[in-house]
Design brief:
The protein has about 240 residues and is of the alpha/beta class. Helices cover about 35% and strands about 25% of the residues. The strands form 2 sheets. A 6-stranded mixed β-sheet has the order 6-7-8-3-9-10. A 4-stranded antiparallel β-sheet has the order 2-1-4-5, with helices on one face. Helix 4 crosses helix 5. It is globular. It starts with 7 loop residues before the first strand and ends in a 6-residue tail after the last helix.
Length: about 240
């Protein structure tokens, strides 16, 4: 297939876990370049499962394409250069002796020259407002700082698509506000899975509601979040 004008294209995606639990049922979704989309829904709706299909960590039945590449065994390395996933728990992504080494890991793995690695690390840390932390040990930092560094590790790969799983979960009000302001300045196409509907309202013009593995609503965030009956029907609350 030729170049795509879509950042993400998902068609008729089904996925069941090995124990038989059906997690995704016929998901179809198109995301344009530069769009910011929230994926919301109750626990167990399939949000994280859907996100793990975007770089081939999980593989269901159906069609998933990111940028110019189908998500297939042959393309996994290319796909993972296009899509950066930031997990809910930053300790899942931070494992090096220093913050600098954590953020440098991806660019080094990509085979980039030392000068470019350093440039990407500094740039990514600056974007997340943590450039002063380069020589610190990640595990000694606060949750908010760790989350920003985990995002920097992905930004250093220069992804076209940034996928964030519950980025504001567990943050105090000041850390949450800082994170929202920093995310708002980023350029990549963004998918944000979150229960934080106020953050969604600020960052994402479009929202997709998942429930029991299906897309039950997809539209302008302002419309969906103002529909109290819709939110109530799918276990969501704008608090």
């Amino acid at each position: 297939m030729g170049p795509s004008c879509l950042a993400i294209e998902i068609k008729d995606l089904d996925y069941s876990y090995p124990d038989g639990h059906v997690a995704l049922r016929g998901i179809s979704l198109c995301v344009g370049p530069g769009e910011r989309i929230a994926i919301v829904g109750p626990n167990g709706a399939g949000k994280s499962t859907l996100m793990l299909h975007l770089n081939g960590i999980l593989r269901g039945d159906g069609h998933v394409r990111v940028g110019d590449f189908d998500v297939s065994e042959d393309n996994l390395r290319k796909v993972r250069a296009v899509v950066g996933i930031v997990f809910q728990h930053p300790d899942d992504q931070l494992f090096s002796p220093t913050v600098f080494e954590d953020v440098a890991f991806g660019p080094i793995y990509m085979g980039l020259p030392e000068d470019e690695v350093r440039q990407r690390v500094i740039s990514s840390l600056r974007q997340m407002g943590v450039e002063a932390y380069a020589d610190r040990v990640s595990h000694h930092l606060s949750l908010g700082e760790k989350k920003r560094i985990a995002i920097a590790t992905v930004l250093a790969m220069d992804p076209q698509v940034l996928v964030l799983d519950e980025p504001s979960a567990g943050l105090d009000p000041r850390s949450r506000r800082t994170l929202i302001q920093l995310l708002d300045q980023l350029d990549p196409t963004m998918l944000i899975s979150s229960h934080d509907l106020r953050m969604v309202k600020e960052l994402c013009p479009r929202t997709v509601i998942l429930d029991e593995g299906e897309v039950v609503a997809d539209g302008p965030t302002s419309d969906l979040l103002n529909d109290e009956a819709l939110l109530d029907a799918h276990g969501l609350e704008l608090v």
